[in-house]
Structure of DUF2892 domain-containing protein:
Amino acid sequence: MTIDNAVLSFAGLMILVSLALAYLVSPWFLAFNAFVGLNMLQAGFTGFCPAAMIFKAMGLKTGCAFK
């Protein structure tokens, strides 16, 4: 698995978990969805992604998006 795959999988998982929590617990968990979306948007423009840095430190191979 590359860093690119891990970042996309992690973001998708966080969105699904947030949606489940919003449905089961409180609609305020939708704010977490907004945070994940904004983080993905800024990573697309700046190339800075904290999750990619963590996955790189864990030893995952670099992909074409995050080096």
Notes: The chain has three helices and no strands. The chain has one domain: 3-57. The CA atoms of residues 43 and 53 lie 12 Å apart.
